[in-house]
Amino acid sequence: MATLTFEDDLITPGELEHLKESISTQDLPTAIKTIKEVLEKQDLVELNIGVTGESGSGKSTFVNAFRGLGDEDEGSSKTGPVETTMEPEVYPHPKYKTVKVWDLPGIGTPNFKADEYLKQVVFERYDFFIIIASDRFRECHIQLAKEIMRMGKRFYFVRSKIDSSIAAEKRKKSFDQKKTLDTIREDCENGLRKIGVEDPVVFLISGWELGKYDLNQLQERMERELPQHKRRVLMLALPNITLEINEKKKKVLQENIGRVALLSALVATVPIPGLSVAVDAALIAKELKRYYNAFGLDDPSLQKLCRTSGKTIKEVKSLMKSPFHQGISTSSILTLLGATALLISEDVVEMFVSFIPIIGSVVAGGMSYLTVSNMLKKALNDIADDSRNVLMASLETEV
Ligand SMILES: Nc1nc2c(ncn2[C@@H]2O[C@H](COP(=O)(O)OP(=O)(O)O)[C@@H](O)[C@H]2O)c(=O)[nH]1
Ligand SMILES: [Mg+2]
Questions:
Q1: Is the CB of 60 under 6 A from ligand 1?
Q2: Which of 12, 230, 327, 336 gives 20 to 30 Å between its CA and that of 117?
Q3: The whole model's pTM is what?
Q4: 302 three-state secondary structure
């Protein structure tokens, strides 16, 4: 059995350097407090998204799909031919309550005034707006876009109901999906140019099939333009419906492994049988749950997936190989940690121990840190693989 060294280990010297900087000058209680605060603060970050557009354009449908909900699920926004929204209505994400998608009143009524509208919906509240049109963009969209810009906020133009545009074109013999999409996009962008938008970008979206068409482009653009501390929560909250989103979820979750492992080693309570290592198993369990949640592999999400894809829970679970998919328990965590600990060479531990003075004072602390971070990295990889397999299988059954 090979032991881990720094070369094939997943922890890079750069990560160690970073950890060293953050805690080497502090005493143990302060170090623990600092890391805890960083982790807690992340969970408090708010994201407010304002979804606007004409009545019937598909705002409510988008608000639901963006939060991974169907139109009839609990907590969903009412959709239908008659506009039901007269005031901004807040729809918190079912798993990340600090992510709030706001279903805004329809625009484009005869007396529509963009400045009054924005005041009425409390524009300061939103990190950005999504302006939805189910057909051409019109004067009211541009007015609103300009006013949003004037107020120093961002917006994204979305052309919705692309599935039905595609379905209509499909009847033609010469149908070519890419060409159809390009034509719609150009048409929208030209329209915007004509009414004075310099560099228009339009995202083609279907609220019914959110994972298709331009969702990846939209998601990339939002992520790029958000402040750093808000990107994480956006990526966690997005439904796990494209391979790109899947990959990014893994990335943001990876960023915390060092912190969680360190905290687990510093507040260590449960010794791993047979090894001089102690960890905080509850902390690890919480982090593992976070992984399953973010990837939509928790039981409620899987049940929903089964309802829409026609697969059974058993079929879906048979695709999952990660060690905790049957449930996360202290004993399963300790077993896996034990196996990981055996893989870490003493050289690595010693080098690590000399590197970080605080836990360096306890060799077991260094060992615990390395063991937990390796275990979490492996678990995250496995869980991300599971979710990719489940995602691909559910896409296959969709026609
Ligand atoms: N084909 C298709 N229909 C949609 C889509 N989004 C919304 N709709 C339908 O369009 C109508 C208006 O949608 P809704 O979300 O209530 O629009 P809102 O008035 O802007 O909130 C409803 O009948 C929806 O089912 C979509 O992406 N594709
Ligand atoms: Mg509505």
A1: yes
A2: 230
A3: 0.89
A4: helix
